[in-house]
Amino acid sequence: MPPKVTIRKEEWEKRLHDVQVTKSDLNRLIMDYLVIEGYKSAAEEFSQEANLEPPVDFESIESRMDIREALQRGDVEDAITRVNDLNPEILDTNPALYFKLQQQKLIEYIRQGRIEEALQFAQDELAPRGEESPEFLSELERTMALLAFESAPGAPPAIAELLSPAQRLKTAGEVNAAILESLSQGKEVKLVGLLKLLCWGETLLGEKAEYPKLNVLSGTFVDK
Amino acid sequence: MTSRPGRSSSIPIPRSASSTSGRNIESLIPIPFVSPGRQAAMQGTSGRQPTEPRRVGPEGPRSVTTTHNISVSPVRSTARSVSLVSSVPGRTSSSRPPFEPRVIRGAPAEHIEHGPPQSTSPSQARRVSMGTVRASVTQPTIVPQHVVSSSTAAFPRPAYLNYSSLRHFLQTDAQPSTLPSRVAESPSAASSRAQSYLSSVSSDNDDESSLASVPLPTRSSNHVAAPMPQDQVLRLPTRWSEQDRHHNLNVFSDGRELSFQGPSCSGDKEGSSARANHKIPPACGIYYYEVEIMGKEQKAHISIGFAAPKAKFNRLPGADPHSWGYYGEDGSALSPDRNNVHFGPPFGTGDIIGCGIDFSANVAFYTRNGPVFENIGRHGDLYPSVGVQHNGEAIRTNFGQARFSYDIDYHVQQQCHATWSKIITTPIDYTRLREEPSKPTSASNASSNTTGDNTTDTNDEAKDILNQLILSYLVHHGYAQTAKAFSKRQKDRTASSELLDNSSSSKVKLDAAEAKVGTMEDDIESRTNIVNAILEGQIDSAIDTLQVKFPEVLEADNHLIFFKLRCRKFVELILETAEMKKKLKDIHEKEIEKPTGPDYTQNTWASEDMDMDVDDDSAIPSEFHPVLESGTNWNGTGPSTGLDTTTKYESALNEAIVYGQTLSNDYQSDPRPEVQQLFKKTFGIVAWEDPLTAGGATAELVGQGARVTLSHEVNQAILRSQGRPAQPALETLWRHISACITQLGIFGVGVAAFADMERELLQ
């Protein structure tokens, strides 16, 4: 291995200066984030203030967020109705997603202590699906195990986590991604890609050269 | 991937290098331009038709595409690419006014003459004419840059290279391949270009003893200053080298043909080889060239491939340990690690062999049979190379001068896409992202802390970082309403999940963020108002707001910003008078159709007088009065229709002069050259009747562009006064990553070519 090249801060900053990127390029990245992450009003304001064409109908952001909120509230039925209002094909063509929603519904029954309804629902709706795939079945078993414990804190973590807010968020995230896909909108935020690219590029360059270290959040450099 | 590579004749599977490249190539193999047997060659042209339907490359038919893509090369008129190469000597810099690029006149004629001679080669008539047509279409755009080209027909960068993120560095300008290039491109100096870059960046790099000290003749003048990557030109091979070849091989026809004259070689490894004039820049990502067999042999004693600078010219590519080749006589693959392995069909007269190298996976490939030679190009430079053994054998090469027979664009596109998909699965190293730069940790240590969680796409931690970056970006640019809506929404969201979750560290952060936005909102608004006021020419209003909200900005740098604003105010006043005067003139011109008496002449005289008197900018304040007086004179007797305007004009002019005098009094004794120069330039504009149409430096000083620059400067000064960075962290991040990728490309890391931020994230 040849010795590493050292690039000084002044030199590096000069190169940064020469990189061609415009405000409107960055504005579009921000808009992408606002849309995908569902910041409807911010996206609207931004479209005005930055004079940007909205990439999607703002209403679709709204309905996506309504669905997300319904799931975070625990109102799975409402979420399913809204998804179907938006585009019935989303759930029709994605049995795994539909199962997850049904599972979430079962979880919500159990959370509310509506045991009878929970059992009924599990038998009517989930059991037949559990037969379709072993994966569904084990998820169903895991969920039903919640009934075995009087209170959530007593349950093993793998089971108790079903009652956590993270579980709702996870389901909501999957529904969000499916909807974005149906709108043929990218589902991965481009700015996340940027962070990945940073990690990729810095690692590779670190093998070849010493170069100034960027503090990502403050945007300042320090020589190594 | 367990099969033994190279043993089976028809299923090429890469051993390990990259399954994606293997897959892609395999999918492409079924569309060779010439089917393996020689029958196809006999059938002639139909077999060579390119596979148009598969084309997924840039839009449209090839000729159009090419023309279009050419504009991607340095003269492309969009700001981005122009300035990418802006520091290349002899080109227009983006900072210069747009009317300047005179450099590029006059060259086209020289190039038209490249067409006809080529098409005289009978065996190549068809193809060459294609190339010629294409060339003539593209000449007007391309030629001007190749100021240096002379001995070789210049051609645009082949379209497939536009997939490289470093395309702007890749140039086909053929240097005169006469004497100087011998020096520049001799083996010992082969990597001198890159070395000159490296060694100028750091002093501790001399891995190959002789190199670092070889100064490049063309570069010696600015060798002292570390050249920016933008200065770098990565030259593409464009022809066979006149120097770096065996003496039995002769170079013909613009350097594209080689023919063997001499006693045929008998040994297995003996042969005469040549290499191209430039080494292949790994920044290509994938490099590709095609060789057509022109000799009469059905099984050519020719090897086609790649050679390192050290390879000897009396060996076939692949027979020397520093080279790789595909040999026509028996279809074997010759390489340093495994000699004479059967690889593909034999080839001979009329066949076209496509030969490529993928620097992102370090594997070579032939259109005949897919990938081969893993780990090629990992260590050191490579040239396209061909070796010939028998008298009378000849080849013709397409380095990109003509349309390729193989759909290399599609191939590259696939590979590019696959590589990007891989890059984008890199896990995010959150410890790295949150690192304080003051901590002296090295990058390699940090990367071992990687949270190997690449299943989440936008997880909370990434969101948290991005939210901070976005908020600071919005605040920086004064998107107050967006910032408000953004942080409010974040708070609502957190609050709603708080109901269930009590781990509220993120809530605290958000509260802080919102508070920040709250107090900043007022600032943002004032800042936006100031910027807008300057953009509209309302300098007084900008100054007033500054005085109330950011008085320290006006005081900073010994009132430099304040001075600049006042100069601008003067410019605005002068512009106003110029505007009025134009109106006035219009009125007078209408008046002249009626009998108006002697006033008109006096009017003309007056304006002439003004222009001349004011011309001397060193003495402006005192020179102003005569102009004013003469103006008053003719106003007094002027036509009644223009009276209102005239009066207004008079007072406006008066106001401007008074303002100018005050300015002069205030800054006359300021010792700063910067101040004096701006002062002088600013008063200079008075010399023009209409400074806006004056062109050149004057127009630059008064135009909207100057307002934008000033508003930007003021915005930055305000941000600085608040202890905030002059550019949003998000923008710095983007620039940093881009610089990393460019640097990797310059270092010869091929995979960087397919990390194209612009294409992947902005389109």
From TrEMBL, chain A:
InterPro entries: CRA_dom, CTLH/CRA, CTLH_C, LisH, Ubq-SigPath_Reg
Residue ranges of every copy of the CTLH domain listed in the record: 60-117
Coiled coil: none
Classification via SMART domains: CRA (SM00757), CTLH (SM00668), LisH (SM00667)
PROSITE patterns (alphabetical): CTLH, LISH
Highest taxon listed in the record's lineage: Eukaryota
Protein name: CTLH domain-containing protein
Organism: Agrocybe pediades
Automatic annotation (TrEMBL), chain B:
Xref: Pfam families: CTLH (PF10607), LisH (PF08513), SPRY (PF00622)
Domain of life: Eukaryota
Biased composition (Polar residues): 63-96, 117-126, 188-198
Transmembrane segments: none
InterPro entries: B30.2/SPRY (IPR001870), B30.2/SPRY_sf (IPR043136), ConA-like_dom_sf (IPR013320), CRA_dom (IPR013144), CTLH/CRA (IPR024964), CTLH_C (IPR006595), LisH (IPR006594), SPRY_dom (IPR003877)
Biased composition (Low complexity): 1-21, 441-457
Domain CTLH span(s) in chain numbering: 523-581
Domain B30.2/SPRY residues, every copy: 218-404
Region: Disordered, residue numbers: 1-137, 177-229, 433-459
SMART domains (UniProt xref): CRA (SM00757), CTLH (SM00668), SPRY (SM00449)
Name of the molecule in the record: SPRY-domain-containing protein
Organism name: Agrocybe pediades
